[in-house]
Amino acid sequence: MKSKGMPLTSPIKDHFSRLNNIAVLYIGCTVLFTVAALFFLVAQLHEKEESYLKDATQQQKFQLRALLYSMEHVADAIFQNGIDKEEILSVFAEAHDAPVEEQGRIRELLYEKLTPAYAKMREQGVRQLHFHLPTNISFLRFHRPDKFGDSLQGVRHSIDLVNRTHQPVKGFEEGRVFPGFRNVYPLNYQGKFIGTVEVSFSFLALRNLAVDLFPGIYTLILNQDIIAEAVWQDEQFSYAPCLISNAHVKYKDILLHIREELPKLNIVSFETLQQININLIAKVEKRLEAQEEFSISYRLPKENKLLLLTFLPLKNIAGKQVAYFISFRGDTYLYSYFKRFKRMSTLIVAAGIFLLLVGYLFLHQAVKRRKYMNLATTDSLTGLANRLHFDLVADRMLKEAKRKNGVFSLAILDIDDFKPVNDTFGHDAGDKVLRDVALLLQRCLREQDFVARWGGEEFVVLLPETYGEDACVACEKMRLSIEEAVIQTKDSTVKITCSFGVSEFTPPLTAHDLVKKADIALYRAKESGKNCVVRN
Q1: Nearest partner of 138 among 232, 73, 222, judged by Cα
Q2: If 0-12 CB within 10 Å is exposed, 13-18 middle and 19+ buried, where does residue 41 land?
Q3: Which of 97, 146, 224, 316 is deepest in the core (most CB within 10 A)?
Q4: What residues contact 97, with CB distance under 8 A and at least 6 apart?
Q5: Residue 369 has what pLDDT?
């Protein structure tokens, strides 16, 4: 609707403006509520997941410590009951100062005496039984008896440390062949330090014990630079690139054991496990470089499973971080929490969509009502308010004037000699004249004024807070604007004039009285020669 002042004075527009504001507010609140609810739900999920993953990391650390503590006690028992004995120490005591040939005899004797015991040690998970001379020279490796005489100075910090302190040392450490959990003990015979012995467990022993006690997938990845430096060149074939980190390698034997036991564990397939490692490299590699300890969750929607992956850094005896202990475990608690989150988020989104749909339907109906109301209250030719709409606005203005003891004026104008325009130029030209007059009137009026088509070639104008004299001035402005205008029709140009009748509201006049007074004034204007403004 193009009438001036309509947003302030039209009861119809006020009504639909309120409806629009309510609809916009409703939709905005619905969207805000939905987004806020989802944000809160996601924040709760992240907080819950983060807390749970921290607890999972701590739990895995405690389990790892328990496993290491158990193996250390086994090593202590092996040392005390099988090695730290007269019959063993007396033989090894001669090795340090013996010539090479004699050392060979001592080595064979020592190997013969401890081979049965070493076989039992292997059943308990021991991988290495290794004797060293006080000069850090390897004397006898039971797992590789043909490899001896090499210096471990600077390679095996644990042996260096025991040689200096004559105290047992325990911990993880790389080696010439493979890394392990070392237990290195000083050997003393008749009050003299004669060398060291190592009882070590491989990671396979640790993971086998872990699988039995805490079912899961356990692996170890090692810093590739450390392995390249420590391990003999001809032993490095035992290591392969790691899928989850470009900076680490893995021991091939571990991979074979994992492949064999996966069907029994029923956690994931070997192919899925490899794909998980590939998928996670971008997510974990920076954290591995930062030497963090952490846990992450990995969902397998197709399998309806969730895995917990825990990464625990392992430092060697020298205090340098050289490896990561990694576990893959199925988790039902966090998985059920994710399922609840999915249900809740789906419910919130569905509720939001439903509320938005209700708001849309409400707004759609309001728009339709507004459209129909506009059709009912708007003149289709000029776009101005029609007589019905004028009656509503005039009634409101009259009530406000009476309540506030205010004033307003009304003007009726009629196009002079309009019938000849139609007869001469045609009805299309007449319609063009009516539309152009409507536009000229709107341009001359203030924002708060209201103009409507009264009927035929007549228009009516409401001028709020305007006395009769001022209304005449305003009408004179409109009259001159119309008189000076040149209306371009399809085939020619048309010049027209208008006559105005003005009335001022004074109590106790009604709207009907006000219109009647203005109509009388218009009649006088016509009688006075047209193209003029007359006030009644």
Answers
A1: 232
A2: middle
A3: 316
A4: none
A5: 72
CATH number, residue 325: 3.30.450.20
Q: Is the pLDDT of residue 344 over 50?
A: yes
Question: What angle, 0 to 180 degrees and rounded to 10, lies between the N-to-C axes of helices 333-377 and 387-404?
Answer: 100
Query: In degrees rounded to 5, what are phi and psi of residue 136?
Result: 70, 20
Q: For residue 36, what are the contacts with CB-CB under 8 A and spacing of at least 6?
A: none
Q: In angstroms, rounded to a whole number, what is the distance separating the alpha carbons of residues 16 and 12?
A: 6
In this predicted model, what pLDDT tens digit does every residue of 168-214 receive, in sequence order? 999 999 888 888 999 999 999 999 999 999 999 999 999 999 999 99
Q: Which residue has the tokens 């002079």?
A: 416
Helix (H) / strand (E) element for 169: namely strand 169-173
Domain of residue 274: give its range.
Answer: 50-337
Domain count, the chain: 2
Give pLDDT, residue 14: 61
- Mean pLDDT, residues 106-122: 95
In a shared domain, residues 160 and 234: yes
The predicted pLDDT at position 4 comes to 39
Token pair recorded at residue 409? 């004026």
Give a three-class secondary structure readout of 413-453: EEECCHHHHHHHHCHHHHHHHHHHHHHHHHHHCCCCCEEEE
Is residue 519 in a domain? yes
User: 99 preceded by cis ω (within 30°)?
Assistant: no
**Cα–Cα dist 476/465, whole Å:** 18
**Both tokens of residue 471?**
């209304």
What does the angle CA 495 – CA 496 – CA 497 come to, to the nearest 5 degrees? Answer: 140
Rounded (5°) CA angle 185-188-193: 95
For CA atoms 473, 479, 480, 482, give the dihedral sign. Answer: positive
Q: Which of 309, 304, 321, 208 has the alpha carbon at shortest distance from 265?
A: 208
Residue that is last in its domain, among 305, 321, 337: 337
For 448, phi then psi, to 5°, come to -85, -5
Amino acid at 266: N
Q: Which of 496, 499, 500 is nearest to 530 (CA)?
A: 499
Identify whether 32 is part of a domain. Answer: no
CA gap 234, 240 in Å, rounded: 14
User: Which phi-psi region, left, alpha or beta, contains residue 530 (left: φ > 0; alpha: ψ -120 to 50)?
Assistant: left
Residues 160 and 82 reside in one and the same domain? yes
CB–CB of 345/38 below 8 Å?
A: yes
DSSP calls for 234-263: GGGGGEEE-SS-TTEEEEHHHHHHHHHHHH
Would you tell me how many other CB atoms lie within 10 Å of the CB of residue 97?
Answer: 10
> Residues 329, 385: one domain?
no
Please tell me the number of Cα atoms within 13 Å of 51 on its side-chain side: 8
User: Which residue type, as a one-letter code, is found at position 136?
Assistant: N
